[in-house]
Structures are given as C-alpha cells and as structure tokens.
Amino acid sequence: MSRIAADVPWFKRPWLGVLSRSCAAIFGGYAMASASSLLLARLLATPSQAVLTGMMIGILVCACAALWAFATATAWRAWAGILIPTIVMFALSALLARAAA
Amino acid sequence: MKQGFRQSMAWLHTWTGLLVGWVLLLIFMGGTSAYYKQEISRWMRPELPIAPTDASTALASAERFLHHNAPDATSWNLTLPDARAQVVEMYWMNAPAPEGAPERPAYGSATVDPRSGQAVAARETTGGEFLYRLHFDLHYIPALWARYIVGFCAMFMLVAIITGIITHKKIFKDFFTFRPGKGQRSWLDFHNVSAVLALPYHAMITYTGIITLVFMYLPWGIGARYPDNEQRYYDEASNRIADTRPAAGVPAQMLPLTQLLAKAQTQWPGVAIDSVAVFNPGDANAGVMFSARADSISNVVPSLLFDGVDGKLLSRSEPPGAATRTFGTLYGLHMAHFADPALRLLFFVCGLLGCLMVASGAVLWATKERPKHLKAGRIGFGLRLVDSLNIGAVAGLPIAFAAYFWGNRLLPVGVSGRAELEASVFFWAWGAALVAAFVWPKRAMWAWQLYAGAALFAGIPLVNALTTGIHLGVTIPAGLWSLAGVDLVCLGLGVSLAVAARRVQRWRPPLTASQKRAQPGKGRAVATTVAEPAPRGEHA
User: Fold this and answer.
1) Which region, left, alpha or beta, applies to residue B100 given φ > 0 means left and ψ of -120 to 50 means alpha?
2) A51 contacts B221? CB cut-off 8 A
3) Pair B356, B481 in one domain
C-alpha cells in the first residue's frame, strides 16, 4: 500500500478505502444483522422461537459481514455486498408485516 | 486491499485485536475469575459459618427476612444455597411509593444467613460479584453503556478469532510448535499456542458472551412480534411460567413457603430446587413459583407455579422450544454453572489461556513494530502508546486484581461504604500502574510491575493468615478446598508472575551477527543465556 504514488486523487487514497470498509463492517454489519434478525423474527411461526433464532443468527451475520467488508476486492463491492441484502431483507420483513396485519 | 484473501484477513486480525485488546483483557480476566465467583465471595466473608444448610431451613429463614423487611413488595425472588454458596441471595421489587410519600428505590436486595434469617453478619463486600459485574458492567460507566461497549469489543473479538483462524495456514502443525528465545518468532508461536490450544473455548466464550446480552444488541425482533408486551417475550423465550393474575388488593394469609416447597418436591422427586419467586406476597392472589436447579448445560429449567394462599398447583412449564433450548445451552455454556470441580478448573485454565492470548497478541504487535522505530532512531507516538497500555494492562491488571483481595482483608470492617471502597482499591491500584506505565514505558517497568503483581498475589495467603481464621493452616487440614483453593490459586498466580518478571529482567537482546563474530569465544555461551522466551520486544 505504501508504494502507491502521492498523485492519486484523494478519493482513491488507501486510507479512505480502509475507513470506508470499516464503516461498512461496523455500521453496515450491524444493519445487516438487524435486518436478518427482523426477517427471521417475522418469518418463523412461533413468536418467541422466531425472535430468539433471529437474534442468535444475527450475531453471526454481523461477523460474516465484517469479514466480507475486508475480504472483497474494492470498497464499493464491500458496501454493495452488505447493503443490497440488508435492503432486501428489510423489504421482505416489511412485506411480511403488512401481510400479517 | 489488493492483496490476497489471507493477507486481508491478517490485517483485519491485527487491527481488530489491537484496538480493543486492553478492554478485552479486563473482560477476560474478570470473566475468568468469575468462574469462582461463589468461592471468592465466600472467601471474602470470612465471618460466615462453614457448614451447609438444607433447603427447607434456608427457605424458612429467607421468608422470615422478607416478611420483616419487604412486606409490601410486589415480588420476591430468592436463590437457595447449594454446595458452592452457603447464603441465600434475594431481591425484591418495591411497589411504587404512594402519592406524596418520598420516592423509593425500584428494588431491594439482601444476602441472608440461611440459619439465622438475618442479613449475613459479615464484612460489607461485593465479593466475587464485583469481578463478575466488572466483566460486563465496567463499574463506573452506566451499566447500559458498559454493556454496549463490551458487546462492541466482543464483536471485534469474534472477528479477530475468525480472521485468526483464516490467517493460520498451519493450524495443526503450530499446535506443537514453540520456538523459544527467538524474539518475535517466539511471541508469534506463543500467541498461536495459547490461541489454538483453547480455540474451541475462545470461540465459544466470545460468541456465547455476546448471546447472553443479545436481547440488548438486536432487540428489533421483539418489537416486531411483541409490539405491546415485551415482558411476555422474555417469559416465553426463557420458557418461564409467569403469574399473570393481578394483585387482588385484599390481604391474605399465605401458606408457609416450606409447605409449598414440600408440595413441589412431591411433584419433582429427587430434583433440587434452585430458586423461588413470590408474586404479590401477602395478597389474596399471591403466587409462588419454584424453579429446578439446572441438571444439564442449559440454564432453561422447568418450573412450577402454586397459588400462595390455598396451595393449588396453577401451572407447570411445558418442554421448551428448539430455539429456547439452543439459547439456554449457549447461555449455560457461558455461565458454566453446570461444571463440576474438574471441568470448572479446565474452564478457568482456558480463561487464563485466553488472557495470555490477548496479552501476547498485543505484545506481538509492539514487537513487530519496534524494529521500524529503532531503524528510524526514535520510538514513535503509536508504539509508545501501545507499550504503555500493554504494561498498564498486561502487568498492571494483575496488580489491581490482587489489590482488591488485599483491600478485602485490610480495610477496617466497620467503615461505611466499605464495599465501594474495596472497588476503589482495585481502580486506584490499576490507575497507579497505568500512570507509571505511561510515565516510563520501558522494559524495567514491565519487570517492576510484574514483580509487584507477583508480591501482591503471593502475599494474599499470608495477609489472609494474619487477619482471619480461615487460612491454609486451617482450611487444608479440614479439607475446605473451596476456601483453600482461593489462597492456593493466588499463590500460584504470584509464582507465575514472579517467573515472568525474572525472565523480563534477565532478558538481553540477541547479538547481531557482527557482534557474534567480534567475540568468537563467548558466542556460544551468550547464545544459551539468550535461549529463553523473550517476554517482550527489544527494548533497552
């Protein structure tokens, strides 16, 4: 990383990539964990078991999201790989909530 | 991040580990000591009688105490004594104060002598509970915030463990590899050995630790499925039967709890009762719930609910659902209440290995970083900060833990606010170690602080012998191993710290090739004195 020349534009500096990935891992990871726990809570039949399952899986989702954020090739992919499933899961759980109401 | 997958994981492992390493060390040390929470609490109340009591006597005493001290509470909760704890721990929820009356606290708690039915006649101390709470409440910070901080650090730890495994190419081979006396290589080996040896334990304890507080971290599902009754979620998820009858507002004479206990025992022959909850005590709608002591890993236990006035069995818990059983098992694994003495000791040793893993990881970072700084001719700010924090945490925290035990024995027994004073002894000692480490973050400081921790820990049996009647000379012949164990473990920790301190003190930086050539006769001899694990990096 240190070999990258100083004349790259500011938005391509490595430290920005690291910061961006860190945010994706921490905030995106938490959002994804929340979305998956919410979706599982709505998806499964017995309420208490559904909520608990969502919580226990959510923590693992959060850890996997953090790994993804740093394993993938670019910071953009890191965000996309976290945000798209998060949005899909939130949308699905909103649909389920509407169907249940 | 253009390198391969393994390199990016190594990078992530380094930084997630380093950033929260010092808090993790505090959490690991507090949690490891909490395996012996009951034993430490018992040791810290040397005035208590030693013989155990039966459940019925203990319950009668507890009931007397609660009738006298919390007659108008909305609920009573108490845990009966067992082989490890010879006291009754109880708490009660207070009814809101009537209009115009002064505010009162939401709940009260007491530790009661099962024989006399009085609050324990012992020195005021939080005992092992302080160390247990410390590992997720961090003491001075509001508990809610502390638990978010601890959860955040634990999440980093989980990521560090997973990335650590990925980074590790030769996980099986390194299991058997330790190359002492090779500077950074030895530190890496030691980090690997301490991490890999107890790897299943580390992964388990970190994940299950987050799980114990997960309802705080991911509460969204509760809001979705239980929009207006959160309490019902907790009751259902933990398979707890709850008395949903409201208070009748009519006072009534309750049956003695011991009589209900006998009924519970006929329902559950041979099952030990762990805890008793009384809803609306003294009311016509009083309910009494008995919960069994866990006889497996899971902490989700069956319970029975009786009418407190006529003694009818109102309900009994159903078999728990799959998620509840899973959760209960994860929770139970973390708490380790199920562990018999041998398994408890194994958990304790694994916890100590966890402390060493975190500590050696942080030291490894500094060791790896140092050559760059030495080449540049000066120690940079970042390395100096890490050095200071490493000394203040790795060598300083043992001082604080040992000082807490000293405080328990040496603070005057009658002084007011004594329990809080004991806690401040812990933090003053740690604060002093941290300040010293920041002022002079050098090799000598490692040795001094390790020696200080060694002297304090090894001195605990001694100060115990000088101030109480439950010292090793009494406890070993009487076979009171839970009391003697505290003294012996402290002594063992003291000796280990002394060995570490001595190694730090005697360590010399390895000679460079040109220096070795310059003194051909001595080369061999010097090499053997250096062949010890370097307890930290090159730091003159």
Assistant:
1) left
2) yes
3) yes
